[in-house]
């Protein structure tokens, strides 16, 4: 970043000499060169010196690198374009989004470093890309990030949940398809309002506020907007009682599905979430009408499995 500010005229030659290192045999050299170029992409000097396209192509080429850290840094560089050259993101949006999706699908990433960087990159890029480019990948991204909602790593929970909330901005025109994704994640988002990490709770509040308008229930949308503000203390039991009342009025046919998802959290590693799940079920059963009571599998409910 210091060189971007003070050594502009020298950068083209430095970049030219670094690029061969990106395909070198030594991990340490590939990591260093990738890190340098990734940081350079967060400055508009990359565009000013006509370095953006060649550096972007080289970052994209590093996605198959054998070193996890190189793959992660390459995605960081591509995401940094949103900071350094936001006006270029729209032009290259489809390519940049495809790179991030590839990062989410990285199979040789036991610590999920690449996936976490891909989610961070997507969050930065989504503010600048064409809506049609996002909609082409919307469903894939939503399905891919869903398992991270329950990750043991707080950063993965926070990033995936916040990204899910941001994705809802692009769901217009794919409403029915994305509505299904909202329903799939709804129980998890509501339960993680009791997450032990405050940053995850804030992400859940944001995601639910974003999902509210797509729920087709004005009462539920108003509740999410009014009660899930970051500056407001949430009275969880009272809130969930009212949420379940709206859910059973608007989606009574979903009772069994909501109960089944909650049963999964009876064995959660987080005590507050384990406590919230049976309370959630209790409020659902309390507010369901007699006609839909038959959906409840009492044997399953009593056994808690």
Characterization of the model:
With 305 residues, the chain is an all-alpha fold. It has 2 domains: 129 residues, Leucine-rich Repeat Variant; 141 residues, no CATH class. 67% of the residues lie in helices and 0% in strands. The chain has 19 helices and no strands. Helix 8 packs antiparallel against helix 9 and helix 16 packs across helix 18. It is elongated and about 75 Å long. The termini are far apart. It comes from Zapornia atra (Henderson crake). InterPro entries: ARM-like (IPR011989), ARM-type_fold (IPR016024), HEAT_Maestro (IPR055406), Maestro_heat-like_prot (IPR045206). It holds the Pfam family HEAT_MROH2B_C.
What is the rounded Rg? Answer: 23 Å
Give a quick account of the main beta sheet: strands, pairing sense, barrel closure.
none
Distance between the termini: 54 Å
Instruction: Categorize the overall geometry.
Output: elongated
Helix content: 55-70%
Overall SS class: mainly alpha
Number of domains: 2
Sketch the topology as an H/E string, one letter per element: HHHHHHHHHHHHHHHHHHH
How confident is the prediction overall: mean pLDDT? 91
- Residue ranges: pLDDT <50 for 5 or more in a row? none
Which range does the strand content fall in? under 5%
In DSSP terms, counting alpha (H) and pi (I) runs of 4 or more, how many helices?
19
Number of strands: 0
Domain Maestro/Maestro-like HEAT-repeats: 57-303
Protein name: MROH1 protein
Organism: Zapornia atra
GO cellular component, one term: cytoplasm
